């Protein structure tokens, strides 16, 4: 039976190195090779075991060198660079790849890259565009995580049927924990403009606006608490990545900005009119909408069974909660720190079933924790 054994990852940053770690830990892939324009990233990826060896890519007269022969042996090539350079990289390497090789990418936008690649791709190469809906504001291999793809929605926007190769990639991604979703490149780009790109631009705009106020009074940043931190984490994302994302999806992002500006203007006029009932109605409707989101879908794991636990500030406070649940055989599918204060904070734990949530609740209440469940 045909299997994907040797994988080449181009761009061993956050996504590329996370994928390397995951493939080595959870699949039967025998060798992961990595290429990056940044030597430091290659060194880190080797150190953390995200790749086994460096892959070299040489163009022009050196393209048939011994190192380049490694490209011929790859069953799968993953492009994990900023979207702006993906099509050029495909062009650079495709002549050295074997017939029937699968190429995929993890870029955050799809249409522009696909349109460029379509016209230039060798016919015997199977290109399957992808986008894992998981990540972090930390870029580079130092942020890599073998579990990044676990239970994460992973969109594929296949171009051709691919003679069974498509299934090989799907099986591999399922082994690293991804939940596959298939859609057209256009639909993908339209949805992520709302679900991912607008939130990023908003987070950046918020930091920018508050930063402007801080120029006049720097105490602003001393007063920013959880609300500001929670809504701006993603503004620390890599500027190169986000420039490429925005330029490759500008029409859908601009539609979302326009919709958002209208919504913001509604708030502005309610304030101008000191319309208390109008404001209440708006906040009330939005609160219900926000509460509904995890129930409707948080990734593909729905509904969500969650507990928010108050914990005090002492060493191993989180460990005490998680190990008492672990000892009872209760699996935590997601965990997050909601608030960190000097005297303590709040922890959000998610379970897969209502029964596990109930059992966890009983254990923690017996141990004296205060918690709310949903
Ligand atoms: N960060 C996220 O949350 C996230 C999530 C899903 C998808 N993505 C997408 O995944 C891709 C990678 O993002 P990331 O967060 O891993 O970024 P990253 O900056 O951590 O990694 C990108 C890597 O590509 C390398 N690179 C850049 N240009 C190159 C070139 N021409 N040749 C070889 N290597 C090159 C960089 O040196 C870096 O190591 C992007 O297309 C991004 O849109 C990111
Ligand atoms: O930083 C995070 O938490 C992310 O998951 C990043 C995020 C997102 O907007 O959800 C950002 C861009 C990617 O294309 C996919 C994921």
TrEMBL record:
Reaction it catalyzes: prephenate + NAD(+) = 3-(4-hydroxyphenyl)pyruvate + CO2 + NADH
Biological processes per GO annotation: tyrosine biosynthetic process
Oxidoreductase listed as a keyword: yes
One Pfam match: PDH_C
Pathway: Amino-acid biosynthesis; L-tyrosine biosynthesis; (4-hydroxyphenyl)pyruvate from prephenate (NAD(+) route): step 1/1
A GO MF term: prephenate dehydrogenase (NAD+) activity
InterPro entries per the UniProt record, alphabetical: 6-PGluconate_DH-like_C_sf (IPR008927), ACT-like_dom_sf (IPR045865), ACT_dom (IPR002912), NAD(P)-bd_dom_sf (IPR036291), PDH_C (IPR046825), PDH_N (IPR046826), Preph/Arog_dehydrog (IPR050812), Prephen_DH (IPR003099)
Residue ranges of every copy of the Prephenate/arogenate dehydrogenase domain listed in the record: 5-301
EC assignment: 1.3.1.12
Keyword Transferase listed: no
ACT domain boundaries: 306-374
Cleavable signal peptide: none
The entry's keywords: Amino-acid biosynthesis, Aromatic amino acid biosynthesis, NAD, Oxidoreductase, Tyrosine biosynthesis
Family assignment from sequence similarity: Belongs to the prephenate/arogenate dehydrogenase family.
Protein name (Swiss-Prot/TrEMBL): Prephenate dehydrogenase
Organism name: Selenihalanaerobacter shriftii
């Amino acid at each position: 039976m045909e299997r994907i054994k040797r994988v080449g990852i181009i761009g061993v940053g956050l996504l590329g190195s996370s994928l390397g770690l995951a493939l080595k830990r959870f699949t039967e892939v025998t060798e992961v090779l990595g290429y990056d324009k940044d030597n430091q990233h290659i060194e880190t990826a080797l150190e953390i075991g995200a790749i086994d060896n460096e892959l070299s890519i040489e163009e022009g007269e050196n393209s048939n060198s011994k190192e380049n022969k490694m490209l011929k042996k790859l069953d799968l090539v993953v492009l994990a660079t900023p979207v702006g350079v993906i099509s050029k990289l495909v062009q650079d390497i495709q002549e050295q790849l074997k017939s029937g090789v699968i190429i995929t990418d993890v870029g955050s936008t799809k249409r522009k890259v696909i349109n460029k690649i379509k016209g230039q791709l060798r016919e015997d190469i199977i290109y399957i565009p992808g986008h894992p809906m998981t990540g972090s504001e930390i870029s580079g291999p130092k942020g890599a995580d073998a579990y990044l793809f676990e239970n994460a929605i992973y969109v594929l926007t296949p171009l051709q049927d691919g003679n069974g190769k498509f299934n090989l990639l799907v099986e591999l991604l399922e082994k690293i924990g991804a939940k596959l979703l298939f859609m057209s490149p256009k639909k993908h780009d339209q949805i992520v403009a709302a679900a991912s790109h607008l939130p990023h631009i908003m987070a950046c705009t918020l930091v920018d606006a508050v930063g402007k106020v801080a120029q006049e009074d720097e105490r602003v940043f001393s007063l920013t608490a959880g609300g500001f931190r929670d809504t701006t984490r993603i503004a620390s994302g890599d500027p190169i990545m986000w420039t490429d994302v925005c330029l490759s999806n500008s029409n859908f992002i601009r539609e979302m900005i326009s919709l958002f500006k209208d919504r913001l203007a509604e708030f502005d006029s309610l304030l101008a009119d000191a319309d208390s009932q109008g404001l209440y109605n708006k906040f009330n409707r939005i609160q219900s909408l926000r509460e509904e989101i995890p129930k409707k879908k948080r990734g593909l794991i729905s509904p969500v069974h969650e507990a928010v636990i108050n914990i005090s500030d002492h060493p191993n406070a989180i460990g005490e909660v998680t190990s008492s649940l672990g000892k009872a055989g209760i699996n935590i599918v997601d965990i997050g720190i909601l608030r960190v204060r000097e005297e303590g904070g709040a922890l959000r734990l998610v379970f897969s079933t209502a029964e596990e949530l109930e059992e966890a609740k009983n254990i923690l209440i017996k141990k004296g924790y205060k918690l709310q469940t949903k």
